[in-house]
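From the shared-data thread, chain only:
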Amino acid sequence: MEFGREVRRRRTALGLTLEQLAERAKLTPNYVGSVEAGQRDPSLSTVLAIAAGLKVSAAELLGTHDELSAPALEGARLLDAVAPDVQEAMLQLLRAVSRRKR
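Structure, as tokens:
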């Protein structure tokens, strides 16, 4: 049930319909809906397909990163994809913003 709730939370946060996620994951909307409702125990291949459709890792959907929010995880993925000098500049900016907030 937790997996299904996380799929629904992320899908709605992205503004995706069941049909759009199903298309991305190459599944049927009915199947995705039943996974979200906790009525099905998806196979590993289905978990991977849904994760790919949501553009997240399967681990995130399975709750292994529950200490970080969805925006924090997205920021980390984006930061990880840029050059090291850009990463350092962004980290300095985030540290400055964090200090100011306190």
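Residues 44 and 58 are 9 Å apart (CA to CA).
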